[in-house]
Amino acid sequence: MTGDPLSALRPWEAPEVTSWGRLPMNAVDRRSGALPLDGDWRFQLLSTPDAPVGGSWSSAYVPGAWTTQGTDDLPQYTNVRMPFPEFPPHSPAANPTGVYEREVDVPAEWAGRRIVLQVGAAESVLLVHVDGRPVGVSKDSHLAAEFDLTHLLAPGSPSTLRLTVVKWSDASHIEDQDQWWHGGLTRSVLLYATEALHLADVTVRAGRYGELRVDCRVRDTGGALPEGWYVSGELEGRLLTQDTGFDRANAEDERVSDFLGEARLTATVPDVRTWNAETPELYGLSVRLHRADGTVADTSRHRVGFRDVEIVGRDLLVNGERIFVRGVNRHDFHPLTGRTVTYEDMRADLVLLKRFGFNAIRTSHYPNDPSVYDLADELGFYVVDEATVESHDHAHEIADDPRYLNAFVDRVSRMALRDKNHPCVIIWSLGNESDYGANHDAAAGWLRRHDPTRPVQYEGAAKLDWAATDDASDLACPMYASLEECVEHALSGRQTRPLIWCEYSHAMGNSNGTLADHWAAIESTPGLQGGFIWEFWDHGILQRVSDARPVGRGGVGLHDNGVAAPGHRWAYGGDFGEPIHDGAFIADGVVFPDRTPKPVMYEHRELAAPVRIECFRHEGIVLGNHQHFRGLDWLSGEWELSLADGGRLTAPAELPDLCPGQTAAVPLPFELPEGGGEAWLTLRVTTARDEPWAPRGTVVCLPQVRLRAAAPARPPLPVPRGRVEVDTDGLLVHPLLTAAPALSLWRAPTDNDELGGMGPRWRAWGLDALVRKVTDVRHRADGRVTVHAEHAAEAGVVRHVQVFTPVEGGIHIEESAELPDAFTDVARVGSVFETIAGLDLMEWYGQGPWESYPDRAFGAPVGHHSVPVDELFTPYLRPQESGGRHGVRHFTLSAPDATGLTVVLDEPRQVGVTRYRAGDLTAVAHHDELVPRAGCVVHIDAAHRGLGTASCGPDTSPSYLVSPGVHRWSWTLRAL
Ligand code: GAL
Ligand code: MG
Question: Might you report a single GO cellular component term (predicted)?
Answer without folding.
Answer: beta-galactosidase complex
